[in-house]
Automatic annotation (TrEMBL):
Signal peptide range: 1-27
Enzyme Commission code: 3.4.14.-
Function: Catalyzes the removal of dipeptides from the N-terminus of oligopeptides.
Entry's Gene Ontology molecular function annotations: dipeptidyl-peptidase activity; serine-type aminopeptidase activity
TM helices/strands, residue ranges: none
Alphabetical keyword list: Aminopeptidase, Hydrolase, Protease, Serine protease, Signal
InterPro entries listed in its UniProt record: Pep_S46, Peptidase_S1_PA, Peptidase_S1_PA_chymotrypsin
Organism of provenance: Fibrella aestuarina BUZ 2
GO biological process: peptide catabolic process; proteolysis
Family: Belongs to the peptidase S46 family.
Pfam families: Peptidase_S46
Protein name: Dipeptidyl-peptidase
Amino acid sequence: MRNQFCIQKGIVATSFFCLFTTLVASAQTAPINADTVKAGQYDMGKMWTFDTPPADYFKKTYGFTPDEKWFEEVRLASLRFADYCSASFVSANGLVMTNHHCARESGTGVARKGEDLNATGFFAKTPAEERRVEGLFVDQLVKLEDITKRVQDAISAAGTDNQAQLQAREKALDELKAEYTQKPGWKGLELQTITFYDGGRYSLYGFKRYTDVRLVFMPELQLGFFGGDPDNFTYPRYALDCSFFRVYDGGKPLKTTHFFKFNPNGIREGEPTFVTGNPGSTERLKTVAELELDRDLRLPQMLTLLRNRSNALQAYNATVKSDSILNEIFNLENSYKASKGQLDGLRDPYLLARKAAFEKQFKADAAKKGLPTDTWDALATDVAKLRQSFNDYAYLAPNPLSLGETATFAMTLGLIAEAASFNPQVMEQARGLIDELPRPKSRALETAYLAAHLTEAQAALSNDDPYVKAALTGPDGKTRTPAEAATYLLTNTQLTKRDVVEKLLGGDAKAITQSTDPLLALGRIGGQRFLVANSLVRDLNTRDQVLRSQLGRALFDTYGTTIPPDATFSLRINDGVVKGYPYNGTQAPIMTTFAGLYDRNYSFRNKAPWNLPARWMNPPAELLKQPMCFISTNDIIGGNSGSPMINKNREAVGLVFDGNMESLPGSFIFVPDLNRAVSVHAGGIVAALRYIYKADRLLLELTGK
């Protein structure tokens, strides 16, 4: 049935619609024959580097030839926004465009007494009203240098010991940074070493850092994050996820010739689009064995953790109503949805078969070049060992997000006591913990976190596990629920009292090992086991860093720059086209309009998170027909938030802020059939500024009108 439908509708066989239909009808569908599946041309993505810009590829694919000047101007107009987002210059006067969700913390941070910028938004009607954001910076990449040979020579000279190789690599990178700090043209720049292909290539980047950054415009939270988490990673989409800042230099707006002119009419179906930004992290070079570990253990554990902690925070925030807690919830929900999409992709037998097909072809091509092919087997051996240690490493780690602050402190003390049995000097190093006593937000939240942890440990480790037994067995010998155990442990612990902790850390480890504090007793059991697991995982990770570097070097030696490296939060340029896709039994339009925003608002009867601020409630008729968001086949990932979407003329036609649900497996494979980047339309930004915010000063700067 699935194959017939796909053929009749002309849907490409690799489309997610067909794949999801397969999963639904799995009981009636023959299993995929992995031997017949082939890797896609762009499975490893399109995140090209500016070190080796893909001019010939662009010419062949899109019929235009960008020269060195084109790539240089694009690079200099692109920015890194703090250490978590992307941005760009969009005027000659230092105007910077990025997402609302990138600017949310910075924007609300400049609110004055009595202001609620989440509710009202912000617009500086005059230059004097632009507000400086303390601590915010943007980085412009101005220098690039290939340092591969120096680093790889140092690694080779270190011999075969894994730790020695890694130390030699770090030493070489540090020496290069120190050396280039004194070189003409590099002085005064922020220097960063960039690793490509997991060590197959290395570069040194020099950034011009601007630290006087001022808020110019930010919409209300309800527009910047319209639809909230339910609409996150979906399309069609209706969010005005944009903000504007300005860079000042010497107390005056920066004068720059490197910027993207605004084009509010530059979107047409089939039109080539280019995204410049800093994609955070992808894992497309991972082996099938590593991906199976993620599928079976790592991601399921992460999803359970994120869901339970988000639920606890939402219950807590219902009573305190804190913006900072709300941001924590947003981040957890965003991470949950992203991780869920990755897991769904890894559970798709077709996508994993495609990864296996690429791995098989890669091995064959590497062998033809005389390169070693035993790296995959070595990584598979390590993965098998990691599986055996996963539960102790994941569930007994001293992590406040998992255990809460107080239980994490107890687990840390347990670790210290165990480590001190091998090295007594550990106790001296641990004395500083006296000044780091747990200061939880609330006892209720601590209890909820610890109860969630015990529930998760019970499910993963079993009821017969010594740690679980110790946690859930009460003083009367009866079994308690995780919630009851959490309440008892936190009620009866003394680890939040300074005098108690001073005694525990004041001498040797005996005070810790002999303490009868119930939470510390549990922390000793968990800490001891985590220390063993962590030691094994640390050694395996050290070895695997070297193995992945060998794999990355083999990838580059085999395919060169025809395959781009994984994302590393370094500046990239990727390409795509404006294109719709089939979804939910119909067709997704290439763009949405403000009319759709109001339809969604009315359909949900103005309830959160689809409610609108008062100023948006009676729109002029002309606004309704204006474009709002659009989609393209560009290859993006977290970190690309705030990236400009440009055309061949280096004009800003949009602002990337999300991907669709089908893009979420992009962490390990890029499948462009239904993968879509979602952007705010430049015309939509202009329309909102004109019809709603009456932001004439900003409109004139962006459009000249």
